[in-house]
Amino acid sequence: MIDALRGVDLDVHEGTIHGLVGESGSGKSVTSRSVLGLLPPNATRVSADRMNFEDRDLGEMTEETLRTIRGAEIAMIFQEPGKHLDPAFRIGFQIAEVIRAHKKVARRRAEDETRELLDLVGLGNDERARFSYPHELSGGMKQRAMIAMALSCQPRLLIADEPTTALDVTVQRRILDLFRTINSRLRMALLFISHDLGVIESIADYVSVIYAGKIIESAPRAEMFDDPKHPYTKLLLDAIPDPSMRGKRLTAIPGTVPDAESTPSGCAFHPRCPFAEEVCTKEIPAWKPVSKDHFAACHLIGTHDLIVEGVGRSR
Fold first, then answer.
1. Which pLDDT tens digit goes with each residue over 130-142?
2. Does 31 reside within a domain?
3. Domain limits for position 55
4. Does the residue 157 lie in any domain?
5. Which residues 6+ apart lie within 8 Å of 226 measured at CB?
6. Helix (H) or strand (E) holding 56
7. Looking at residue 194, which CATH number applies to its domain?
8. Per-residue pLDDT averaged across 32-47, rounded?
């Protein structure tokens, strides 16, 4: 059996935005789909000490029970909305059907709520978006429609998996502003998944970094960006383009994230880590407290300073 995830410990609290960040192949999307039981049942098995949602263990639920929770209490926004919107039906109809499926309301009431949702996400100036098919909308409009659909039953937890991927920076900024507004207004818990640390810095209250299927550092946003402790986090931060570093070569992390079939022994990051020592190749590092809400898994924490040029600079 191959372990795609090897240690994921996340707490997402009401009214907060928790950012999950890592390179492609780190296990971000697998984590989000595991929560909702969306992985292929015949090819995967999810095991956890606990997977609590409002004092209920999702891991112990039957598929029938999970089906009543998906969309109604926990909603998910997938990557590339064009692939998850049905091309055969108008946007308004798709949103209204989600409302009717979970709330059991009349069609007229579902249509009224659909208008309110489209207005909330900025598509309510006219009826054009509601009566449009997915292919008639721009990428940003499709993403807003997906957000409206995810919010249709006012879920307690919203999982946004790379919601700004492939959007230009102007549309991306509007989508991020929309998430902040929704999170503030509805007081839901939001797990925001991205490979872009710059995006995570602009929206998250708390940040977790995942590498090779394992969370390797978690901290409040300010601590994570001002004083990262894991070498991987430090290198990721130093790779963010910064106007003040104009003319200087960006930091690049050599190698790639290992696939699940060939995860290295010890600390999975050690083949790419410029600070790796012998213990890193043999022993999996323990989860160590750095401060009250800051934790990291690295053998070298507290032994000596890990200095990566550029990290900790004013942003």
1. 999 999 999 889 9
2. yes
3. 17-219
4. yes
5. 312
6. strand 56-57
7. 3.40.50.300
8. 84
Q: Which two tokens stand for residue 6?
A: 């090897």
Reading phi first (left if > 0) and then psi (alpha if -120 to 50, else beta), residue 39 is in: beta
Q: How far apart are CA 245 and CA 76, in angstroms?
A: 37
Question: Does residue 296 surpass a pLDDT of 70?
Answer: yes
Sheet containing 157-161: give its strands across. 74-77, 157-161, 189-194, 17-21, 206-211, 214-220, 294-297, 287-291
What is the DSSP pairing of strand 206-211 with strand 294-297? unpaired
> How many Cβ atoms are within 10 Å of 90's Cβ, its own excluded?
16
Is 159 among the domain residues? Answer: yes
What global pTM score does this model have?
0.88
Q: In angstroms, rounded to a whole number, what is the distance separating the alpha carbons of residues 233 and 200? A: 13
Number of domains in the chain: 1
* 175: in domain: yes
Taking the C-alpha atoms of residue 86 and residue 40, their distance in angstroms, rounded to an integer, is: 21
Q: Is 238 exposed, middle or buried (0-12, 13-18, 19+ CB in 10 A)?
A: buried
